[in-house]
Records
---
Amino acid sequence: MGPLQLFLGERDLGKQKSSLIFFLAYLVSLSIVPMVMGDYEAMNFAYFLLNVPLGLSVTLVWGYCGILSFGQIAFFGVAGYAYGIIAGNLTQLPAYEFIGIGGGILSSMLLASILAYFLFFARVENWIIPVLTLVFTLLLETFLAQTAGYQWKIGNVLLGGYNGMTGIPSMRLPWIDDPLYGYSFYYYVLTFVALVFVALRIFINSKYGSIIVAIREDSLRTEVLGYDIRKWQFFVFVLAAALASVSGILYVQWGNYITPSQLGLVAAAQPVIWAAIGGRSSLLAVSLSTIGMTWFSFTLSTQGNQLSLIFIGAAAVASIMLFRDGIVLTLWNNVGKLGKLFEKK
Amino acid sequence: MEIAPLIISLVYQALTAGAFLVLCSIGLMIVLGMMNIINLAHGEIMMIGAYVASLLVTEGLPFFLTLPFCFLVGVLVGLVIEFLFIRYLYSRILSALVLTWGLGLIIAQGALLIYGPFLPSIKIPFGSIEYGGFTYSIYQLFLIFVAALLVALIYFILQKTELGLKARATMQNPEIASTIGINRKKMFSITFAFGAGLAALAGGVLAPTTTIAPFMGTQFVAPAFITVVVGGATNIITGTLYSAGSLAAIRTPIGMYLGSFAGTVGLFFAALILIRLYPNGLASIRLFGRR
């Protein structure tokens, strides 16, 4: 099968070719949106968009492979800090931002593979993974919060304790002198995120995707068919960490800072809730819900609204109790049914 | 330095750490063992317990008389959560995790909105005694006593009462238990409410040792979850005791030399190694070779 057939495979919304039109329209509208805004609003919109890989990482592990991880935000944070340390120390080199991106993603993947080794090769029960990844996130936050002072200086970069790391280098392309900001940064994020999305959708519809979904459906049966599920779970977990780290790096390139509370307990809830609300078995639905939810909580918190956490918690409760398949996915399926109803008449 | 006081001090510290782990985790452990559900709002229910204690102490009630109220409020909260949500999620453990997490967020933020960022802290009752150059807080000794009492009480309920017999039957095989006339739904709601009550009681007794704030539960959940993961779901009593015991033995020396945060990090790595060795929890080890 060619990449296009794989992209239109059955494991996401839009099996028919006509839905390719929807995806293209989605992409086109995302590229047009900032044009009607100013530079500053485009920068804000880039923030909503850059969270998409983080949401997709939860979709991959939880929705497709049946492993619930609360640790994605930790991989997001580790990649952000690693990018800050690496890029911040190598500013003399050409294209040091790219070294930072590579180093950030690799550090997260390394950390994820250590955790994944202990979790999956022990064949623990499935409730242990969310609990231990949550503890891991909490400990990482506590650790980073106590790194204030000059003894926590790596090269030229201060970890900064509770106030976080500041002055993280922006993204810059080798052939352009100025760092990316506003429109240019937005299109950089859009390109990066769209590439990640397309690659992930092709992957999930490939034969490897079949194995991953099979593990979710019945891990014992998959195992007796001859697949070493431990290796596949390990692989998926590390891949998801790489996805989360893409968001982490884009985030620090966007805001030039990161604080420990960005990977705290509340932040850890967010990607899981985006996935639950979007419909965790669809990449497209979660990409939509991620943009929508980050927009929503960004608007609430910039207004200083203390209810924003309550809304997020209530959204989690509602998506579990009322919409098993997520709100976006439920809407989508029912719109399809409505369409069929009209066709019959 | 004499050796005897040092040993006594080490034993005291290990027991304190163990009692802390037992108090934090016993409510979770019961719910997990009986119902295979993890309540991620556990820390927030502990916070509710501490809030009840603090509010009642402010009203003029002596601290020790507030503890039954902590337990009762916890039971009520547990009953409500079980009735509204958990009973629909028995076969969906991961969904229950996400749901209870959302509830935890609502409870903590709700407490912040209603009562503000802090409640008056409770003065630590009793004083301290000194022996051989080390000081011992009498309240910490009391906490060790409470932890031991709770474990003994749960052992008694499980092994010596009819309710406990039914509970153990449900734990072993819920399907067959219901065929012999045990009301499984009722057992589950009693268990969940009891677990929440124990969490709130633990929050109440631990309240004097910490600041009382909406997100105070966060400091308890990491040790509590680690204890539960290491202990496993197969046996409530042995799981709790083995796990809290071995983790306290790991935490005490690390915490003594490197500080309490390093102690918690040590717990996490110990948990990773222990689950690698005993994926079903320490409760699955048979010390005396019987099955």
---
Amino acid sequence: MLTDTDLQAIWLTVRLAALTTFILFFIGTPIAWWLARTRSWWKGPFGAVVALPLVLPPSVLGFYLLLAMGPNGPVGQFTQSLGWGTLPFTFWGLVVASVFYSLPFMVQPLQNAFEAIGERPLEVAATLRASPFDTFFSVVLPLARPGFVTAGILSFAHTVGEFGVVLMIGGNIPGVTRVASVQIYDHVEAMEYADAHRLSAVMLAFSFAVLLGMYMRRNTPRKEA
Amino acid sequence: MESIEARFKLDWPGFSLDVDIRLPGRGVTALFGHSGSGKTTLLRCLAGLENPSCGRLVFKGKIWQDDNTWLPTHHRPIGYVFQEASLFPHLSVLGNLHYGQKRSGSASRVSLDTAIELLGIGHLLGRKPDSLSGGERQRVGMARALAVGPEILLMDEPLAALDLKRKKEILPYLERLHDELDIPVIYVSHSPDEVARLADHIVAMDGGRVVAHGPLGETLARLDLPIRLGEDAGVVLDATIGEIDAQWHLARVDFPGGNLWTRDHDLPVGRKVRVRVLARDVSLTLDDPGRSSIQNVHPAVVEAVADDDHPANRLVRVTLGETRLLSRLTRRAVEQLGIVPGLPVRVQVKSVALME
């Protein structure tokens, strides 16, 4: 069956994806809300920046992050001044990189969900004495719940599937940065095809299960109010 | 002090609102006009849902908006009923009612129970909005607006999205609100029938401007009303049931200066009612009509004659004592009968709509 290093890699992947998704909920929600509501000129440029990881080769993203987080990069200087050292080749470095890498997968479903809610429920809430802050939690969050589920699943799954960025930022340190996708790569490099098969099958099953769950949920008819 | 002072200026591409008006602080005021006349925009300005570039709003002595003040919507003591009920789909009926009520604190003047009773929705409380009919949804929407204990109720065409059957289902509740609420109601409508039934005061709007306003009866009896009412031109009279003729199922409604027989609606003698007499149902004769199927015939005096929407027609205003009626005649009939102000005539009223 799966080897200990395989299990270690899977566990690391799950931790990385869960933590990334958790952080992304807090970062992605305000960004998506702003993008959904603003009429500012900056909506276009900012939306494009958020979407960049969708089209950018992961190695490019990883390269720039590596420079930024390295000893001479702005992020690196900052983390060093706090006494944290530098982030590349650490688990937290991977988390930061994954947050950037998966950002559009959080923001876009949320933005769509917020836009679909429209102006009216917010106006209704205001006439019922709810402040904008109150409205966000009592009306927007419940109405956008399917969007949050989709965004969470996509961010998690996308982080699990990340490879290029991990190689650039994290390298291949067992238990620290060696995630499942890198582990498979290692197996193949070492001609351990059987091991590569097993781990790949796990990833395939996982990915399919996630998408199946999402599409089945989407196809369940829901009544409109 | 008891009135609502509203002045708004707003410029959008293709539409502008320019209103400076004093609305009465009690009773139902209808904002009446065709679509695009700015009535809904004015209502939204009152609610703080639009932020006009230049505006001043003083509600019973309290400044809600001027150059230095802006009271956001959630701080205004309003109840707002949207055209589509716009219930929160994630909450039950009761959850929707509670939403505003628990946020309005002790300011509740009309309690939740009163609102539920007034709109007759006690049996719906556990249901989800998506399982309600259009009419039920709108009643819940109204109860939700009342449950916050508003000092003013703003209603944006609450019947417009409903079919005739649902409208008939809701109108009695609206009439109850009219009778039982002691807060001012601003009611946006493009339906002359709703206005005739519900309003005490009318603000007629066109092209983002107020073109006429005043007490309903007085304003509708104007011959120079700048909005075209067409077939709906007519007057509304406050009357009392004076007699019931059980044999013929008729009721006599009395008003200062006369009375009219109409179908009996099972209302007791003495009940205050509102009757609507359309100009097209009123004809004039110079002689006693003799044997006629029209049995509501009264002596009256011509007060004024004016042009109507169509060049073939003229509108004639006559007085029966202190009551005024409008009559629509052809221009030819006016010429041939020599109808001029001061002429004594007989009015024949063919039909009367009785509204409780």
---
Amino acid sequence: MKRLGYLLVLGWGLLGWPRAAQAQTLPLPLPHLRVLRDSLTELLAREPRPDTLRVLRLNTLGFALRLNDPPRARALARQALALAERLRYAPGLMEAHFTLGYDYRVRNQYDSALFHSRQALTWATRTRNPLTQSRAYYNLCRIYTEQGDYAAALGPSLDGLALARALHRPQVEALQLVQAGRVELGLGELTLARQYVEEARDLLPAVRDSVCTAVVYQGLGDIDRRQGRWQAAHRAYARTLRAYRTIYTERGLLPVELLLAEMRAQLTDEAAVRPTAWQLLARARRLQMPEQTAGAALLLARSWQTTRPDSARTYAALSLSAAAGHRLLPLAHDAAQLLARASGQLGDFRRAYDYQAQAAAFADTLSGEDTRRRLSAAQARALRSRTQLQLDVLRQQQELERLRHQQQVAGLLALLALTALVVVGLVWSFRRRQARREAALRTRLAADLHDDVGNLLTQVSMQADLLQEISPASDAPAQARLRRLSETSRRARREMTDVVWGLQTPLLTLPALLTRLRDHAYEVLPAAQLTVDFDVTDAGPEEALPPLLGQHLYLIYKEALHNVVKHARHATHVQVRVARHEGQLRLRVQDNGQPAPASAAGEPAPARSGGGNGLRNMHRRAEALGGTLHAAPGPAGFRLEARLPAP
Amino acid sequence: MPEPPYTLALIEDQAPIREMLQEYLCAQPEFECELVAESVEAFLAALPTATRPPQLILSDIGLPGLSGIEGIPLLQARLPQAQVVMLSVYAEAERVYQALCAGAVGYLLKDTPLRELKEHLLQVMAGGSPMSPGVARHVVQAFQRMSQQPAPATGLGGEPLTARELDIVRGIEDGLSYKLIASRYGISLDTVRNHIRSVYRKLHINSKGELLARALQRHRG
């Protein structure tokens, strides 16, 4: 039941689709691992269908088993790789290569490890997986570090660290930091190394993961050890061991246990450590771990150094064979030196000399390698920083270019906008000027016409007057005709004046309209012996009336006065009232003419209809503007009232 | 008060109209045509040749060279006793007002029937001044404007209308005939005419004073 529970939880978390491709970055706790292993094995056996899900499962299981069951992990990873290649499944390829790279590294088969890790990196970049990229960098860095090629390790170390920092995942960042610290440690830059690892240690509270803790403290321990701070190193290693106990089986724990033993030996003496060293050696040989075999053997050898040189020599020889066989130079060097001393103690001076020479050779290689390493690392660093500098400069230049480009574009846009505005402004002002010029031209034409034609008409009327004077008063028809001629020409002049006036109506204000009404009344009525009385509204604000309103009102008014003059019977007085009321302009023309005989009030008097057209026109004008017109005879005379809307 | 026949001078540039006016007016017993000219300059040039100085000058406004209104001061300088009446096609109150401010005593339209023209001229000689309602409005406005302005430092002009004068002018503005105005205020027709004359004179003086004041201001400023 518990297993099922674990299975469900893990299954949910791990077998979820894309996340499974990213799977784990860190080892699982052992109980979880067992559950995972069993459940996945079952699934893989039960569902042999070759699809991407199978690839996923193979990779997950392989990766999980990498620490404690490497052969099986390897096999699973290979299966996953083959299937992924067949299906062209990129994430599958990525993970499989990664697992294989890891496996080869752990087995110190660095060429294969490099190949697979680089493949993993390529696929991670292609599938845009920055996390796995970072892991791949990490792996590469560790490969180079373990090879001792610190210069080559620098690149992946810094790249991986940069990526990790960008990902904002403290686990990944901590691990990369420790690795960077290891690289610097390998190059002898102890201060820098300590800086890195301490930075990683500061991240631990955020991480709260035992593997991270272990890695960090192991790093610290190594730095302390290098500096000869045995107590601090021991403490660090103890914490490391504690953290690793949850993940590693005895195989994984062995290196750290050995380190702890070495530290204890430094702090106390080798003899005290002997039993532990013996146990560790047995374990190392059983688990076939050469480095630890050599280390444990050396420890034992040291412990016997003073008391039993032959035992020391035996163990030292064991250590040397294990170390030299796997190019573990520092160990080999130490073992050789110990052998030399032991041989000397035993009196075997020839052997002692040989061993010393070997040790010296190892030392040379080591120091030479060391120098070379440092040199190449320094070169790599310089190159990197130079490249970085160049990159920075290039980037800055690009930025500048972009900014300049932006500025240019902005400037251009602004210029365009300005030009557009200017053009619009010019067009607008041009059109306005055009309109004004047209208006001025029209007015001038009208004025000229008015002058010229008006002049001629004046001449006509004057001639008519003269003729009236000259012709005898008794010739009544002639007189009448001349009088009519005179009136007609005068009327023609008035019409012309109205036309000129009419051109100004768009800008007509109410006061101007009233002036015109008055002037017209005085032009027309006194000649017909009619007095006029004006009752006009307060002119009000000097704002322009709606264009058609003034013109139409004036024309209605003219017609009305004309009617009075022509048709009013015995009228002597006209009253004109103009008022502004409730958004309307009201015009009233009332005369005191007598009504036509035998016509009831309310009936339009036939004499008044005057051709009918005049009244009809007035009606139409009023209606065209949305207003009303009432014209009817009344007891006091004829009354005309027009109401036009005037907002 | 001069007695008929009145010596008349005519300034008009349009030949047909000039001839017709001459034909009509000079045929009237009340008038004696002394001088007929085409322009103000021609008139002034021909003035020394006149046997008698004209008492009444009928002048067009639209003339070549100096306009009729511009010519009024010159005419009055040469003939202080003469009365200048403007004759024009334009009935615009503004122009009439300007003419009156310049010193004209009357303003007549060329449209006017000849008989009426004669009447008006006789009125002028009798001391009257024909004023149309449009003009009256401008006169009132002018005096209102002057009363609002501060009096020029020189003390020239700024003579306001008396209450009676203002009444009469308003009456004209309302469109009442001289007769009605006279009856409304209980005065005689002649009094009405005199008042109008004095209004014109004040206008003239006031406008002259205004011009001088403005000129002084410009010099000072």
---
Amino acid sequence: MFLIAILAAVVASFLGRRKAQAIGRASGGGGDPRSRMPALPGHYGAFLALCTGGPAFVMACIWPTISDTFVMRAVLASPVAKTLPAAEIDREAIIGEARGLADGTIEAAFNPASYELVKPITAAIQHFNLIGFILTLVLVLAGFAAGYLCIRRDFRARDRVETIVMVCLMAASLVALVTTFGIVASLLFETSLFFRQVPVTEFLFGTHWSPTTDIVPGQTNGFGAVPLFWGTVFIGAIIAMIIAIPIGVLTAIYLTQYARPTVRKWLKPTLEVLAGIPTVVYGYFAALTLGPAVREFALMLGMENPTSESALSAGLVMGVMIIPLISSMSDDSIAAVPASMRDGALALGATKSETVRKVLVPAALPGIVGGILLAVSRAIGETMIVVMAAGMAANLSANPFASVTTVTTQIVQLLTGDQEFDSAKTLSAFALGLVLFIVTLILNVIALSIVKRYREAYE
Amino acid sequence: MTEPASAIAIATNMERKPTDWSASSKMRQRLASRNRTEKMFQFTGLAAVVLAVFFLAFLLWSMLADGVHGLSWQFLTGTDSSDPETVGIWGALKGSLLTMAVTLGLSFPIGVLTALYLEEFAPRNMWTDIVEVSINNLAAVPSIIFGLLGLAVFLNFMHLPRSAPVVGGLTLALMTMPVIVIAGRNAIKSVPPSIRDAARGIGASPVQVVFHHVLPLALPGIMTGTIIGMARALGETAPLLMIGMRAFIPTPPSSFTEPATVLPVQIFLWSDEISQGFVEKTSAAIIVLLAVLMTMNSIAIILRNRFEQKW
């Protein structure tokens, strides 16, 4: 169907151009601007192509979903479907299998009843494919006819085409809005389902986390998320930042103030490689290399039974991952400090380090703080490192060698296990997601407003 | 006669005075300590840089050391299996390719059109502000939230096939689009207004100005942003775990709707295997992934350096 729409559009653009050229030649007055057509032949071609292909293309996009429901209805109405079990879940499982058989994506079905359904499904699919095909053809021809008749000497094809282009541009810019709305709506919806089963206060203030599928109303059910919040803050905002802030800021200072331009030219991209490494690689490194090393270290310190999945190893690696972010934000804000301030300090006889510590860094502080807030928001939303290296035990402990779990770890844990979707256990992942979304959003908004105000101050 | 003498006297005075001043032992001590601090500070800065670079080197070296023996033709062309001796990454690589095709096909046009609209046509009003704010926020939303969105909307609401590259591609496209929009807007902003004025002056309509002149000039910048965004999407794991792209795939997927896995998820799955043989294979897969990503990023840098125009 897509192919038809596109091919028809190509042919139509050619014909539209031809017709416009023909009209232009017939009217003859090539030299006189007033007798020329109001748009180039190409515009007429594009107009006709859009008329012909556009509706058919939209149709081809939405037809699969529409035909799906029709196919389902047809199958359920067929005599074979009468024998299916009444429970919706069972029925859908069988129909799903039968579809797979009809498509050829699965070779053998689990339930023998699905073999019976293959025939009606294939028939229905073919039936509705044919209808879709005919509908597309009709749309193509109708669009072509309407568009072709429109093309006359005084037809302003350029304006029409540009209106359509503008509509497309606006539609594209709405995608971001729809996405944001989709995120908020889906998180809120699933979370509201969750809070129907588990009280909000238990989730936000409870200190015991061991989610189960069976809920006892009026009792605590192991949905207290405080240990997760603590684990997230401990790894992302404390350990990782202890690593990343000094190294990131010092790196930025060294690269902007001390390093020679050639050194800087090479070191900067090298450090940015750190930001480009996928988090799963960091996670693997933390789990395989750093985790055991941290455990050895804990043993050396005389701890009993340290685990190789510790907050420290995850936090360390996360800190390294964050360094480029803090470094580049600090770099930008130090570079934004007016040169006159720096020159003034140097002229008064301050050494370079005194200038940096007493003039540049205080002046750039809002920008640096903004960068740190962005980094914290990145760190607490980070998933793979903590999933692979921080462990699953929901401990409320400030011991960096203990295993802690985080919000993101638990989201992954809850949603990759069982497939049953409506249980409180899976729904709680969405509540965690909502908390994460809100917190990162607040951090980002604050960070961006600080950075923005700071930039304005020096402009 | 006296004049030169006094001049000399003044000159020696001027020479002597600072010498005197710095010769006082207190001042000398102070200067020395200030110089020491200066040295220390510079050394700390250098140490921070060296530490970061050292960590990077160590990480890359440990992956190379573990995985370089796992690289072989069979590894590159094989698919997942339960035996570490025969596993390969072609299945996951193909899943990645299919997913990236969907991501690129959706996020590039939408991202470019959005950037053009916001930069060239959008009126200054509340709606535009809302769109801008939502794009900036989407760029900073944790990737796992996009996974939750994909799970709730694409799988549970729209009933798209689970574990399929098309769903993964859709989810990653939503994540990549803001990156492309932001890069695209910067690239478009850097095209000087004189180009637009000239085109307008000879009778081009606003749409013609943008598509014939502004867009081609901004394209290298947009491409750079797109490649960086795609590299990020290619290394992404968490949102794909959410939509179930963690299946065991013994045969490479041949269409957009078949169950598939991608390279980073494959690395994650292998890292969970208990068998020792998988350590080598996981590191080998990481080497392949890093090689692809670094190639993409170098292309982006080359593109930027070669085509970037200073107006």
